[in-house]
Amino acid sequence: MTDGARAVTSDFYDLEALLDDEDRALLHRVRAFMDAEVQPIINEYWTRAEFPRQIIPGLAELGIAGTQFSGYGSPEGRPCSTA
What is the C-alpha end-to-end distance of the chain, expressed in Å? Predict the structure, then answer.
């Protein structure tokens, strides 16, 4: 990879290939957030059995919480399709 991006090795079964372009873009935004904001700090929080609350605003910006649920206060997203 020449653009400095890291190779993703966690998608052993290439499930990303099942996603449409919109969901793939979301996946890439989530991966970038996890690499930049979570990976550098998570071991320290894990060993203390604590949650890094400072990442909550970033998670909220991603809009990924509750996407498969509808109703009051839910973003009414759609679940990923496997077909």
Answer: 30
Which two structure tokens, joined as six digits, stand for 23?
């969901």
Task: To the nearest 10°, report the CA torsion of 18, 21, 27, 28.
Answer: 130
- Read off the pLDDT of residues 11-63 as tens digits, 9 standing for 90 and up: 889 999 999 999 899 999 999 999 999 999 999 999 999 999 999 999 989 98
The phi, psi pair for 15, rounded to 5°, reads -65, -25
CA dihedral 42, 43, 45, 50 (to 10 degrees): 100
CATH superfamily of 11-83: Acyl-CoA dehydrogenase/oxidase, N-terminal domain (1.10.540.10)
Structure tokens at 67: 């996407």
pTM of the model: 0.68
What Cα–Cα distance (Å) separates residue 73 from each residue in 66, 67, 70?
9, 11, 8
Task: Decide if 19 contacts 27 (C-beta within 8 A).
Answer: yes
